[in-house]
Amino acid sequence: MSQPVTPRRTTRSSASASPSPAPASPTSPPKSRPKPSPRRQLLAAAAAPPKEDGSSADALLAELPGRRAQAMDILRLLAPAPALPLMLHGGAATGKTRALLLALRYLRPSQRLVYAALRSLPSPRALFASLLSQLSATPFSTSSRHRVPDKPSDFVAALRDALNGIVSQGEVVYLVFDNLEVVRSWDKGGQLLPLLLRLHDLLQLPQVVLVYVSSATPDAYYSMTGSVEPNYVYFPDYTVDEVRDILMHDHPNPKLYSSFLSVALKPLFRVTRRVDELSAVLEPLFRRYCEPLGDLKAVPDEGMKRRLFEHVQSHLAVALNETFNVPMRASMDEIKDGGSAGKGSAKRQFAGKDGLSSELEFHMSVSAKYLLLSAFLASRNPATLDAALFDSTGGLDNRKRKRKSSQASMHMKDTIVEEMLMKGPGTFPLERLLAIFQCITSVSEDILDEIDCPGNMASESGTTGLMSDVLLQLSTLCNSNFLSKSRSCPLEGSARYRSNIDEDLALKVARSVNFPLSKYMYRR
Amino acid sequence: MAAAAAAAAASVASQAQAVLRGRLCDQAVVHSALRSSPDTNYSKLKYLVASSVSEACNNSVLLLGPRGCGKAAVVDMVLDDLKKDHPDAISVIRLNGMLHSDDNCATKEIARQLCLEHQLSFSKMASSDDNTEFMIDMLRECGLAHKTIIFVLEEFDLFAQGKQRLLYSLLDAMQSLTSQAVVIGVSCRLDADQLLEKRVRSRFSHRKLLFVPSSVDSLQRLMEHLLALPEDSPLPTNFRVVSYMDIDSGLLSMQSFMNALSSMQRQPKMDGLQDLSILELYILVCMNRLEDKEKSSYNFITIMKEYKSVQDAYKTSDKYSHTVCFRAFEHLLDRELISFADNKGRNQALEYRPVKLLISSRELAESLKLNTTCPAVLQKLLDRERYM
């Protein structure tokens, strides 16, 4: 318990936050250190003394396109030292943290920055440790004699002591709490949150400026007894023009790129307004756009523009219906580093609908695929229909009995459909899964035999050998999250399973083993 | 010449701004105007505490009122005055309900502060019982030495959670004749005294001082007091206005007040609605339609069904695939414009968990009206169902 928790990230940022140019901590091996993210570089930059030339307000505003009003607000509210608490709020990817850190860099002389990203500090204890270690003059290592306080009272006392030492030297301290919204879901978040928000009252130190950054709106923090509200600065999402400015920023061929953006940005903007997602989608699209061009430095004329537009139009339609997955920063860098690899991945991304099935090659054994399909069927079909669907004759054409569709029965059917939609995939016991598995493998036994290993030991030795194998594969599927295992039912005592895959994926898997899945699916 | 004069004016202005900012950030200065006028809570509290110090008796009082009415500032001012009047006769112990609501922690803190006041060495290892005993002994000793201990309990309502052992032992110790102590509770819950247990309540003197938000007149006086500069310099609220002060002219113009007002009167939900993409708006409108159809609960799959039917009916260009819509749905969840209806079924896939809107249809309609890029179809979809 007495072992202080100091996450690696905090020790590093504390090393960079100390005003003297501290040497890189020798304890952390340089090889295992991940690539610094832009945010962390910014953090280091915010802590470092400003460069002589680039610290004018205009330079600051130039670095924050579309955020002029917000940056001015921040500067005004923070600027001469005594300041009331400040809260920046706005959606994801609107430049809250960036604007704040750049503004703090601009205000740099005679201030000290303590930055806590609450998302990376999983508990109050880690938060306290991080704050105190950033404040203490000597970065405290895990083996130091300092005891990390875990009670709020001890923490506030320790924090006040540490801050008093700095403030008495005439320095201003900026305490920044980033990602404040995650505290709400913490274990004791309900107690910690008022503490953080009322820190200004508790500390009573005018030279300590508190800044909160949150993607949740201020009304998420109202509590029963209230607290004195901080000053809010709202960061709205970027407009189309601002997004264009941001994307055009420092582009090698602005003419070409702007003609591309005039085609591609508007439709994508209807789907999402987040800059990070947009830039992730636009990058491969632009590469596609440039393909007909031999020379990337070329300035396009009208005819060329039209040709390029016709070329990119089909790809644009595909891109619109693809998920915007924002790649990790590191992997994005890799794509940029290796040009050929980047092109390969871009090609794969735009292989189109028909290409998807070829892309979808999981290395999965045939019986695992069958198991997956039977789990899918067991989840989607009502259990009462199993007998009809998997008759010993293997056919399902004997469903001739059709009830009269009276008004009442139609209505009942509607509500059942509704219920199915609400409940989602159902759960099933292991026995049902195995029964379905046996049925569908026996139906397509000929296919299985073809593919089976030449020894054909398993099928000869009967079902017992197959079963043990199946159980193993079942646990593999559960581990890879294709199936989920729910808690065991208190009455029956056995665990129940549920399939997590959607219909598209199931159909693709079925196609890969030539299994007529749609024949077995209960249509409502 | 003119430039030099302008620079001088700017420096004077920034000095003035610094003075004003410092003043507005300091609680004590903000409420010190109360000191001068009679018949305020300040004078009442001062009379109460001063009389119990001079007459050597026990007393307890609650200061109740919403936040920002100057409760803590009044306590501070009274204590400052008393320290000046009776420098040796009082010692102050401060506790905060947010930090010390735990009984053990509170008694430890009391013992620590008592030790600090009386130059005794404080043992961190002392048990909670030891600390309580020490507190009672100190109360007796101080009573014999005619010294008053003043306990200031901020966030008093939080001390009234749980067993209230601290309050009981404190108020019980004050029942004896030898002790000499004042308990000042500060809370922004007006029903704080109702939270007390019977055994605690019976030992509590039911003195309450109610703080109300200042009237317009007194606010005006307060503003004058705050914004007038000490020397009669050529320069003529709140913090935000001063921050928006125009450094070039050195004046607090009407414009800066207007700016500050507009940035403080924001409606976060409406702002959030303005930030949505068209697809996200479609999903919200579909959810609103489902709610108007009096669906008891619905999830992403049902929303997609509605979305498909809308797209089929109107043949708009905004028909996107399932996964793209799901990403937009996740954005809405992120922005907290919609949320899951219950906490059950955490292991269920997100598509199937029931959701609900966190905005009213009026807000949605207004934001659609304000949104210039919003397609007319959306507006129609929302309006039609209202008049049907």
Automatic annotation (TrEMBL), chain B:
Keyword tags: ATP-binding, DNA replication, DNA-binding, Nucleotide-binding, Nucleus
Cell compartments where the protein resides: Nucleus
Any GO molecular function: ATP hydrolysis activity
Chain ranges of the ATPase AAA-type core domain: 61-207
InterPro entries for this protein: ATPase_AAA_core (IPR003959), ORC4 (IPR016527), ORC4_C (IPR032705), P-loop_NTPase (IPR027417)
A biological process from GO: DNA replication initiation
Subcellular location, principal: nucleus
Domain of life from the UniProt record: Eukaryota
Residue stretches making up the Origin recognition complex subunit 4 C-terminal domain: 223-367
Keyword DNA repair: no
Transmembrane regions: none
Entry's Gene Ontology cellular component terms: nuclear origin of replication recognition complex
The UniProt record lists the keyword Ribonucleoprotein: no
Xref: PANTHER family: ORIGIN RECOGNITION COMPLEX SUBUNIT 4
Function recorded in the entry: Component of the origin recognition complex (ORC) that binds origins of replication. DNA-binding is ATP-dependent. The specific DNA sequences that define origins of replication have not been identified yet. ORC is required to assemble the pre-replication complex necessary to initiate DNA replication.
Record-stated family: Belongs to the ORC4 family.
Record protein name field: Origin of replication complex subunit 4
Native organism: Oryza sativa subsp. indica (Rice)
